[in-house]
Design goal:
The complex is a heterodimer of chains A (80) and B (421). Chain A is 41% helix and 18% strand. Chain A has 80 residues and is of the alpha+beta class. The N and C termini of chain A lie close together (10 Å). The interface between A and B is medium-sized, with 18 and 20 residues.
């Protein structure tokens, strides 16, 4: 079973595979689609941290818009 | 006279550039930064002692100095809150553990009730929720007002002669509300009910005198008071601590464990050791002692006066923009040094706001927390739905902040309001 952080990373990827790009608000609203992956408190901080890590590693592009950050999946990381 | 510039220099975190930017730290309600004096005290333990302390353990030179210094830290903590005796100070992992300890060990029967409020941090509510579920006792909730204030009349309505304990937060980590603690304690004591107050957000910022307010139990979060993480304090009146059941058992809490007639018979130590099972966080205790020394040297009145000036500026500055809803009372005198807010328009998620201030401001990183601050019930009560990802942004202040930082933040918040308009 993957750890807490990896599950949230997969959560963000699976959401972005469904809707790319998506805003933070849209990502948080879609967490219900992947309840086994999207873990943590409802406030969504864990998902935000996962998204930031993907952005830092170059898998996701994070861009500011007037309705918040938009997240775009550029390439899918290989996760076991 | 306090030289605040010198105080700020005691916090090396603030002297660094992070990703090439200066830090404006507005997240002290979550975690206060640590002055040099605190980590030097901890370093002393780890570098020169590193041994067991505590009741009846190693009596060699390193062990006895550890025991002496940790008991000295207990004395300092007792003095910080004006406890009658250091034996009323229990070291815990954090304030949450202290609240769990009281909730789990206080004698409580099915026909008795517990009173708490909708404004509690989950750590103040859930231990009592859990205990009431176990005993079948009633958990009565006082609803905070829409503006986050608590009315003593509402406590009067809920507390009766069957109330065993009243648990509530002295200063809210969400709304900043400072509760009418003394009035509620008076009401509770008229019914022979005990009071436990959550002082995590109050004690680091204002003088707490447990004897003056006559509170029965209270908890402190050392990491919010310039101290290290992983250590907290439970205060209790000594006679009441003696009456609590055991919590964790094992080493360090016993006078003897007799083996007689094929049975073991444990004989437990009195408080505070009764509640401090196993090897303790000795470095943390020394850090806690240094932290309260540090605050006492500044003077809690000085801390409060400065913070009140700053939080007034912060509160009024946010309100003047007329673009944000502020949680909690609008009178700065009723508040602790924090402001939780959210945009009036629902367009941008709270996480995006903190990330914007973390990343998008030229030359600065303004560090705040967003979310629900572990106070979900009150947000549901006032129409913020944590379950749908709704939440707030919280800016919280402490002794190292400056008026210039608040000015920069307010300018950037005004710019942000234009961006999302």
């Amino acid at each position: 079973m993957s750890n807490f952080k990896d599950r949230n990373i997969k959560c963000v990827i699976e959401i972005l595979k469904k809707q790319n790009p998506a805003t933070t608000k849209e990502i948080l609203a879609m967490r219900d689609l992947f309840p086994d992956l999207c873990a943590g408190c409802t406030s969504g901080g864990d998902v935000m941290l996962a998204g930031k890590e993907l952005a830092e590693q170059g898998y996701v592009e994070k861009k500011w818009t007037s309705v918040g950050f938009a997240w775009k999946l550029l390439k899918e990381p290989e996760i076991e | 006279m306090v030289v605040w510039e010198r105080i700020r220099r005691d916090f090396p975190v603030l002297g660094q550039l992070y990703d090439g930017k200066s830090l404006i730290y507005f997240d002290s309600a979550c975690m206060a930064l640590k002055p040099v004096q605190v980590w030097e005290a901890m370093e002393y333990y780890y570098k020169y002692l590193g041994a067991c302390g505590g009741a009846g353990r190693s009596t060699h030179s390193l062990g006895s100095e550890t025991s002496m210094l940790t008991e000295d830290a207990r004395n300092k903590m007792a003095s910080f809150i004006n406890a009658e005796s250091p034996n009323e100070i229990i070291w815990t992992r954090n304030a949450t553990e202290g609240l769990n300890l009281v909730a789990a060990t206080i004698p409580l029967s099915k026909d008795e009730n517990v009173v708490t409020t909708t404004l509690e941090h989950h750590s103040g509510m859930l231990p009592f929720y859990k205990r009431c579920k176990e005993t079948g006792s009633e958990l009565r909730l006082v609803e905070a007002k829409e503006d986050g204030t608590l009315d003593p009349a509402d406590f009067e309505e809920k507390i009766d002669d069957k109330t065993k304990i009243v648990s509530f937060v002295h200063a809210s980590n969400l709304t900043g509300t400072v509760a009418p603690l003394e009035e509620v304690i008076k009401i509770a004591h008229e019914h022979d009910a005990l009071v436990v107050s959550d002082e995590a957000q109050f004690a680091p910022h204002q003088k707490l005198d447990v004897r003056d307010i006559d509170v029965d139990f209270c908890v402190l979060s050392v990491h919010k008071a310039c101290g290290p993480t992983g250590i907290g304090v439970l205060y209790g009146k000594y006679d009441l601590l003696k009456k609590l059941d055991m919590y964790m058992v094992g080493g360090d809490v016993i006078e003897d464990v007799v083996y007689e007639g094929g049975e073991v018979i444990p004989k437990y130590l009195p408080p505070p050791h009764k509640f401090e099972a196993g090897l303790q966080n000795y470095g943390g205790m020394l850090g806690a002692g240094a932290a309260v020394d540090y605050l006492q040297e500044i003077g809690m009145k000085n801390v409060h006066n400065r913070e009140q000036t700053f939080s007034r500026k912060l509160l009024e500055g946010i309100l003047e923009l007329e673009k944000f809803e502020v949680l909690g009372p609008l009178d700065y005198k009723q508040r602790a040094a924090l402001v939780s807010f959210r945009p009036e328009s629902d367009a941008v998620n709270h996480l995006d706001i903190t990330e914007y201030f973390n990343e998008m401001i030229p030359n600065y990183k303004i560090l705040m927390r967003s979310g629900n601050m572990c106070v979900h019930p009150f947000q549901y009560q006032i129409g913020i739905n944590p379950g749908k990802g709704e939440g707030v942004v919280r800016a919280s202040l402490y002794i190292y902040n400056t008026m210039n930082e608040i000015d920069i933040f307010l300018t950037e918040l005004e710019n942000f309001a234009k961006v999302i308009d």
